[in-house]
Design brief:
- The protein is mainly alpha-helical and about 220 residues long.
- It has seven helices and three strands; from the N terminus they run H-H-E-E-E-H-H-H-H-H.
- The longest helix is centred in the C-terminal third of the chain and has 38 residues.
- The mean pLDDT is about 95.
Length: about 220
Amino acid sequence: MTNSYWALVIVTLIIGLAAQGYVNSKLKRYSKVRAANGLTGAQMASKMLAYYGISNVEIRPGGPGQDFFDPRTNTVTLSPEAYGSNSITATATACHEVGHACQYAQGYTPMKVRGAIVPVANLASNAWIFLLLIGIFMNLAGLIWAAIIMYAAVVLFQLVTLPVEFNASRRAMAYMQTVGLPPQEQKGAFDVLRACAFTYLAAALTSILQLLWLLGQNRD
């Protein structure tokens, strides 16, 4: 393998480990800090939905690490740590996911665009590497370019995801400020949300670097 490839591997590995270490440290730190209002993540999610007049979203308990909003079922799923805990991490996580529910209810354009790209991104993320390998082994430039185009679709999906995630966090913070969360708890929630946003930035950056490397190699 070329030196440029190993450099890419090392750089992306450092970015990924740094992002994961940063988010884990913030989640762990604020999972030990209890919210003064004593509300669990599920209760905060319910109150935020009610505050914005959204009544048709179900809040479900999920497995470890399962914190997401599903527009197909209009449900918010929270991990055990977020669903039943009254920590700052649980509060921030729950409000962030409700932020996505608010986006969906209000027809937030970037979320619509992201939803439209999902099928293409899912297909491309699973198929591009196989096309690339076949193209390399069989020396078929057309397949190599098809693989790169498919990977570019994955990168586009990650880029479109960024404003969706950032906006959900802004909505979460706006709600927590509106309901009078103490300043120190707001700071903790912001730290958690910023750390999680950093993981999306890191993923997008590593994907862009990978795409640039592929383009550079294919021009050689």
